[in-house]
Amino acid sequence: MSGQKVASWAYAEDFVGETVALDAARARGEQLGATPVLAGTGAALRMLAAACHAKTIVEIGSGAGVSGLWILEGMPADGVLTTIEIQPEHGRAAKQAFAQAGVPANRTRIITGDARDVLPRLTDGAYDMVHVDGDKKDYPGYVEQAIRILRRGGVLAIDNMLWHDKVADPAARDEVTGIIRDLGKRLRDDERVIPTLLPVGDGLFVAIKR
Fold first, then answer.
1. In this predicted model, what pLDDT tens digit does every residue of 104-137 receive, in sequence order?
2. Shortest CA distance to 115 belongs to which of 98, 90, 151?
3. pTM
């Protein structure tokens, strides 16, 4: 790959800058070990939320609120983000990030718990968008639930689908890489969705539910 191509990717990744609130949430997430989405991924999530006029969004993995802040920027003023986080300290950090950004409390619902237990309790076809960024080993199960709760025309967004450049490397055979690689291939051929894979951040898989 040419050096110019790498420079172009870096330029695109930072093309949309982050707010003070996002910078603070990112620093908090890095301190907690809750790796935030990169700015390019955040900007893409914001655009997707805006494009589908999403009023109801579920996020699996709150981190420290970075992705949630990006998503909220793309939602209408009466939109509600439901974010599921298994680590209580991460959920508290996300709540702090939303408050510092001036997000009204009634626009977010933070559920502390295991998404494997929470998702089955959510209503079929009730959500406009689902963002998956939780435990990578559980991605296949998360995605099945996500497709179930999405409305027709709803957006599925899955982070880390290039997994540190390992997915494209046939020599990478570790368990997590295998799970993510296989999931991408299955979704590519899944007739329930219209898929694409965007090379932003660590790879953002996006699909529309038919």
1. 999 999 999 999 999 999 999 999 999 999 999 9
2. 90
3. 0.96
